[in-house]
Each structure stands twice: as C-alpha cells, then as structure tokens.
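DM between two lab members

TW: hey, do you still have the Endonuclease/exonuclease/phosphatase domain-containing protein entry open?
JB: yeah, one sec
JB: this one, 265 aa:
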Amino acid sequence: MKAITLNTHSWMEEEPQEKLAQIVDFLATQEADVIALQEVNQLISAKEIIPDDYFCPQENQHPIREDNFAYLIVQALRKRGLNYYWSYSYAHVGYDIYDEGMAILSKEAQTPKEVVTSNEAYVKHLTRKILIAQTQSAIVVCGHYSWAGELGFDYEWQKTIAALENAPLPIILMGDFNNPAGSSEHAQILASPLNLQDTFLEAKERYGEFTVVKKIDGWRENNDLLRIDFIFVSKEFHVEQYQVIFDGHRGSVVSDHFGVLAVFE
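TW: and the structure you got?
JB:
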C-alpha cells in the first residue's frame, strides 16, 4: 500500500494554479492508494457545487465550493484516468476569507466522519478536527494538530485515541502534527494504546527526512530542520519505504511544507 500526506497551504502560495498542476502531475505518477491533504481551502464566497458520486459526504456535510482544492485535484486526476473517492472536513475560517479543512482521497470507497479534537476554551476560532475514512482495507485518518501544550496537542491526542481505540481495521494516521520528531508529543504517539509506528523510523529505505526547512506560519521563530508531517501506521504493517516528496528533488516544491510518501504492506 502506498500513502501520501501533504499540507497543501492551498491558494496561499505564489502561482497557485501552477502549484495545483504540479501536485496533480506528481500524484498521477504515484497512483497512491490513500492521500491525506491538510489546509484544503475554498473561498467562503465561491459558488457551492454538488460533487458527483465519487464524493463521500459525511453527516452534516459542510458545503463544497467550486474552488475546493481537493475537488480540483480529484477532477484533474480523473482526466488522467485515475478515479479517487474523496471526503472533506471543514475545520475553521482561514485568513478571514477561506473555509480551511482536510481531505482524504482513496482508491477504495470510503465512509467518512469527522471528530472535533480541540478544546473550545483553548482554541476558540481555531477548531481542530480529525477526518476518519473507513475503507475496505484500513481506517485512514487525516489530522492537523495544535502545538505542544496540555490544552493543545495533549488534549487533541487524547481525543484521537478515544476516537480510534476500537478501530476495526489497521490504522493509517497522517497529517501535520505541529510537533517535531523526538519531542515528548512524538513520544506520546508512539507509546499510545493505538500501537502505531513511525514510518520514517521503521522504513527499510529512506529518502529524505525533514518536512519544514524554513520559517513558516506557526513556526515564525524556527531556525531548525523539522519533521512535523508524519505517516503513522499500525504495527501489523511492514514498512518498506519512506520518502520526503514535493521537496524539489522528488516533486516540485508546492507548499511551505514538504510532503511524505510511505510504502507498506
């Protein structure tokens, strides 16, 4: 199985249409089984659309708009002969003008649901959620977490455990965790009852490591190379390969984050 995660920073990059095309070009060559996308934006003012049957709505589905970044990726991939089922979870307003959310693309049909993980008293306007999609093969999860803190990541991670601890299938948990490898937050994930493994640590082959290499939104004081974008999988999977992608070597740079690709079986 091949999985990809990317914080797209969509519509916020220079030449966003070109970035969209570069993402599609790379995804078309990889034909991943599951793809998790964060910071999937759509203008609040854009026209609402009704997607086709490859869109998998959840209960109380937030409207999909014509410039939804994941929708445009799915449509472009279809023109290449690749059909993906997909789901979308709205999290909060971004930069005053966008619906910001997450999306999961999968080759298999999926049944999605979202779970609010953030503490309302702490985050206020910045709601955090996880998007959970059950396919025939796995429970695929996309997350965008808060920074370290008892009411930030710690709280959200406990909510994640509660949502997934009775998962009926192996878990693939992907996303932007906003806490670097080697931190106590990273250790929490590896020690949790979900029995997850970090694909970077377990891969037989590795190409690259870090996913943030400059100052970005949320890391304005950063001077370090960070690995904060992860693919965690259940321990029953055997991890063959880990790659940093969209880094200028394996795919064009399309965001303020690099992406991650993992192969496991």
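TW: got it. The chain has one domain: 2-264. Residues 246 and 252 are 5 Å apart (CA to CA).
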